């Protein structure tokens, strides 16, 4: 990404903090439980997790989330031009 072409607020937002690969590839970082930051998996594990949503909250006879929660995942929470990115975005809780 060419940070020089971005507005200063965008640079501060997208690089705060800027964590280098020399940190993000260490065993302690990978082992840490940092919500919204260091989720990791392979294609199979990501597909398995997403199958909870695509199957209404239950897979293999085990319910992980209520069907009403799955429905809420798709409700639009924000829709418009992002003030940092300057492009239209749409977000929901899922």
From TrEMBL:
InterPro entries: Beta-lactam/transpept-like (IPR012338)
Superkingdom of the source species: Bacteria
Protein name: Beta-lactamase
Organism of derivation: Amycolatopsis methanolica 239
């Amino acid at each position: 990404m060419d940070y020089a072409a971005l507005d200063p607020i965008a640079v501060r937002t997208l690089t705060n903090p800027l964590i280098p690969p020399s940190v993000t590839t260490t065993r302690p970082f990978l082992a840490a439980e940092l919500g919204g930051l260091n989720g990791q998996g392979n294609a199979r594990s990501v597909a398995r997790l997403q199958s909870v949503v695509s199957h209404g909250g239950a897979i293999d006879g085990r319910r992980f989330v209520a069907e009403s929660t799955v429905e809420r995942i798709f409700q639009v929470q924000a829709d418009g031009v992002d003030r940092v990115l300057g492009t239209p975005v749409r977000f929901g809780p899922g």
